Structures are given as C-alpha cells and as structure tokens.
C-alpha cells in the first residue's frame, strides 16, 4: 500500500525506475510536450480540460513521493511583461508547496532554450502534461537522494 499521495499508476511506475538526477517536467497547457521529450522520457497527459489538472496539483502529489534536489522554471525573456514586474504568481504557489512539504529547494529559472535542452536530455524520464493556464508554469524537477530512514 502506498504511503504517499500520488496514486497514478504510470507516474508511480516511471518514478520507481527513476534515480538520482532524473528530470521530471510538470508541463503547463501551452508546453509542446510531445515534441520535446528526452530520449528516455515518457509522457503522461493529465490535461482533461482547461485548468484540470493543474501544475500545482501535480506538484502537491510529487512532493509526497520523491526527494527533490532542484527545481527549475523556464526563464522569462526580456520584453515579457513578467520580466519587468516580478515573478509569475504561480512561482509563489510552488514556493509555498515546497515550504509546506519541508522541501528545501530554491526555484532557479533557466533561459528558455536551455530549459528545452534540459528537457531533451537523457536524464529526462517523465513529462506530466497538465492543463495549467497560468503563464510561465513549466517546472523541471531533479530527483534527489533518499536519506537513510526515509
């Protein structure tokens, strides 16, 4: 019986095979998920209708299931309205979810094309496509190491 909140069979299967440094993308509804998979990655589509399932819901489940050592967002290019006015609101929601789960990571934006390259890497094992409507919601997680006793 699972002790964590994540119950999706395919996602649990892929996470069970993933190791340290594996990359998991929580993709928003605008992300080109099918054309950016890494060579070892699987795609799970949870995009039922706009906003259902959301990136924050997926993150809330994942933080209960895996150790997370890094979290990267897609960097916002100059000229975008968010580049001038601070972080997109969803990034603060991610920070709250990490804090509530006692996950000690800092959101680190990486340039848009570097983000796509990171997703296309051999370390990428899973993309979870959501129907998230928030802008700049893509989140690339790096699996950490489970500590003894966890």
Structure, described:
The chain has 5 helices and 6 strands; from the N terminus they run H-E-E-H-E-H-H-E-H-E-E. The protein has helices at 9-17, 55-62, 81-85, 89-100, 112-119, and strands at residues 23-27, 42-45, 68-74, 107-110, 124-129, 139-143. With 150 residues, it is of the alpha/beta class. It has one domain: RbsD-like fold (3-Layer(aba) Sandwich), CATH 3.40.1650.10. 28% of the residues lie in helices and 21% in strands.
Write the layout of secondary structure elements.
Elements: H1 9-17, E1 23-27, E2 42-45, H2 55-62, E3 68-74, H3 81-85, H4 89-100, E4 107-110, H5 112-119, E5 124-129, E6 139-143
Parallel strand pairs: 1-5, 2-5, 3-4
Antiparallel strand pairs: 1-6, 3-6
Short description, anyone?
With 150 residues, the chain is an alpha/beta fold. It is built from five helices and six strands.
- Give the termini distance in whole angstroms: 16 Å
Q: Structural class, please? A: alpha/beta
**What ranges have pLDDT less than 50 throughout 5 or more consecutive residues?**
none
**CATH superfamily membership:** RbsD-like domain
CATH architecture: 3-Layer(aba) Sandwich
Average pLDDT, rounded to a whole number, is 94
Count of helix runs: 5
CATH first level: Alpha Beta
| Strand segment count | 6
Strand order across the biggest sheet? 2-5-1-6-3-4
Q: Could you spell the SSE succession in H and E letters?
A: HEEHEHHEHEE
Shape: globular
Kindly state the percentage of residues in helix.
Answer: 25-40%
Query: How many domains would you count in the coordinates?
Result: 1
Instruction: Quote the beta fraction.
Output: 15-25%
Largest sheet: 6 strands, mixed
CATH fold name, please?
RbsD-like fold
- Cα radius of gyration in angstroms: 15 Å
């Amino acid at each position: 019986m699972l002790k964590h909140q994540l119950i999706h069979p395919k996602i649990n299967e892929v996470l069970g095979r993933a190791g340290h440094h594996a990359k998991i993308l929580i993709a928003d509804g605008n992300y080109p998920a099918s054309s950016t998979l890494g060579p070892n990655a699987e795609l799970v589509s949870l995009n039922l209708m706009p906003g259902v399932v959301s990136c924050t819901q997926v993150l809330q489940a994942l933080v209960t299931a895996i150790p997370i050592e890094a979290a990267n967002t897609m960097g916002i290019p100059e000229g975008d309205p968010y580049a001038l006015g601070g972080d997109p609101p969803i990034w603060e929601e991610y920070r709250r979810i990490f804090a509530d789960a006692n996950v000690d990571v800092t959101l680190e934006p990486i340039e848009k094309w570097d983000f796509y390259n990171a997703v296309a890497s051999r370390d990428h094992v899973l993309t979870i496509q959501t129907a998230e409507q928030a802008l700049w919601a893509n989140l690339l997680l790096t699996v950490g190491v489970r500590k003894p006793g966890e």
